[in-house]
Amino acid sequence: MSPEQLFGELLGFGLSWRVAECVFSRAEGRVDLQVENTEEFWKMERCPRRGGLPKAYDHTDEVHWNDLHVMQFRCQITARLPRGRCELCNHTWRFRSPWEGKAEGSARISKPLLCF
Ligand SMILES: [Zn+2]
């Protein structure tokens, strides 16, 4: 199992998201995870208004989450969050990441540090 697959399993991504790249810097004491949605993502989501299937519209700029830890090392997730457009009603919206707002022990994964 690759480090990317391992972190995807640890974060409980399933089929919708994947860790595209995992970089560990001992000098910086940090693990960086580049995360992206998969093609499967679009089949599993539905429009919040009419329940239609979303089609990929675009992605946000990169967003960073910094308050995770792996052992004693800081862990940063970077992702471009997808926006979809409903094929029934043309509603366009941004998806939340599955790690956004989740509690992990005493740590809490916060909202994105960079807004758009
Ligand atoms: Zn819709």
Briefly note the structural class of the backbone. Answer: mainly beta
Helix share bin: 10-25%
Q: What small-molecule ligands were found?
A: zinc ion
Count of alpha and pi helical runs: 2
N-to-C SSE string, H for helix and E for strand: HEEHEEEEE
Shape: elongated
Strand proportion, as a percent range, falls in over 45%
> Whole-Å distance between the termini?
35 Å
Question: pLDDT average, as an integer?
Answer: 86
Structural domain tally: 1
Verbal overview:
With 116 residues, this protein is mainly β. The chain has one domain. It is built from 2 helices and 7 strands, in the order αββαβββββ. The chain has helices at residues 3-10, 40-44, and strands at 17-25, 30-37, 54-70, 73-86, 92-94, 103-104, 107-108. Strands 1, 2, 3, 4 and 5 form a 5-stranded mixed sheet that branches. A two-stranded antiparallel ribbon has the order 6-7. A hairpin with a 2-residue loop joins strand 3 (54-70) and strand 4. Bound molecules: zinc ion. Zinc ion (ZN) binds next to loops.
